[in-house]
Amino acid sequence: MKHYEVLFIVKPTLTEDEVKTKVDFVKEVITKNGGEVVSVIEMGTRKLAYSIKKYERGVYFVVYFMAPPALVTELVRNIRYNEDIIRFLTVKYENKTEVAAWEKLSKGIKLSPARKEREPRRPAPKPEEQESKETQE
User: Fold this and answer.
1) Residue 117 · residue 97 · CB < 8 Å
2) Beta-bridge partners for 59
3) In a domain, 66, yes or no
4) What letter would DSSP give residue 81?
């Protein structure tokens, strides 16, 4: 089984019960087709970068799951027919570093930038130090 995430945006005009029904629908499609839902993260209502179907805002959700590759096509097919989901994005995590990142994200842990892990940051040279180096050369 592969590691995936699906981010989808639901219409902001829906009630809380209707939004919960849409999330349960996505989870049900995953579990019925042999997948395992690891976590669901609600990101809340946010302003869209541009209007989609005349909506300026949307309710964001991210579902982390493990599934066979054939499930993704079925999931995409079901989401496309759902008029209340205005946008979605499916991401596959393949190599070891991506899977490690998936495990952290599915638990709600934010990723730190890779540079911080590799080397400590050095402070920028002060302007007077930089001038003195230039005059010595």
Assistant:
1) no
2) 10, 45
3) yes
4) H
CATH number at residue 61: 3.30.70.60
**pTM for the whole structure:** 0.77
Place of tokens 């805002």: 57
The DSSP symbol for 57 reads E
Q: Are 7 and 60 in contact, with CB atoms under 8 Å apart?
A: yes
Q: What is the pLDDT of residues 91-130, one digit of tens each?
A: 999 888 888 888 888 887 777 776 445 555 556 666 665 5
Specify if 120 maps to a domain.
no
Q: Residue 103, Cβ neighbours under 10 Å: how many?
A: 14
Q: How far apart are CA 128 and CA 120, in angstroms?
A: 23
Q: Counting Cβ atoms within 10 Å, is residue 136 exposed (0-12), middle (13-18) or buried (19+)?
A: exposed
- Is 121 a domain residue? no
> Within 13 Å and on the Cβ side, how many CA atoms surround 49?
1
Task: Identify the CA nearest to 64 among candidates 43, 36, 86, 88.
Answer: 36
3-state secondary structure of 20: helix
